[in-house]
Amino acid sequence: MVLLFGIFGTSFVIALSGALMPGPVLTVTISESSRRGFWAGPLIIVGHGILELALVILLLLGLGPYLSQDIVFGVVGLLGALILMWMALSMFRSIPSLKFNLASDADTRGNPVWAGILMSLANPYWIIWWATIGLGYIVYAMKFGAVGVIAFFAGHISADFAWYSAVSLAISKGRSFISDRLYKGIIAVCASALVVFGGWFGFMSIQKFVSALVV
Q1: Terminal Cα distance for the chain, rounded
Q2: CA–CA dist 208, 7 (Å, integer)
Q3: Distance (Å, whole) CA 195 – CA 171
């Protein structure tokens, strides 16, 4: 039992260190929380968690070595770059008509759960992390059977929920101080961040393709 708590705790800390780093999921959480309020963050992580659970199952089935290949990174990275650019363009196009009204915006935006899934898929480093660090931890957790893997995943997803819920709460509680102008600025910054991430992922993907062809 002590070892299982150890697995949970270390998994939580490792996942939290990754969640604290800026990325597409954080960017969209900030954007959607300013639109929808607190529940945007937890719902985005529900989508993120669903995808992570599916990936854990794939890793248990033996797909880890294939997911860590350069060609896989290249394909995922390019697709992810396109998704991020598309979302950024949509955000930029919506800015002129935006008004900070959580009630009306909640019905006009896409589902936060799907946003969590798409933003996770758009990040090739997310898959590589799971195919390397995540897989190694799963192999260790499997020594304790299914309950070990459950403890690992529970710790991992709990860290995501804790951090992104805190971010969402901070943004939503500050909504009384957010004017329409500031709101548009927040969306513009988030959209710009997605462009940067998309460009970086696209650049890294091309490098991985070249590396795979040379080998």
Answers
A1: 46
A2: 33
A3: 22
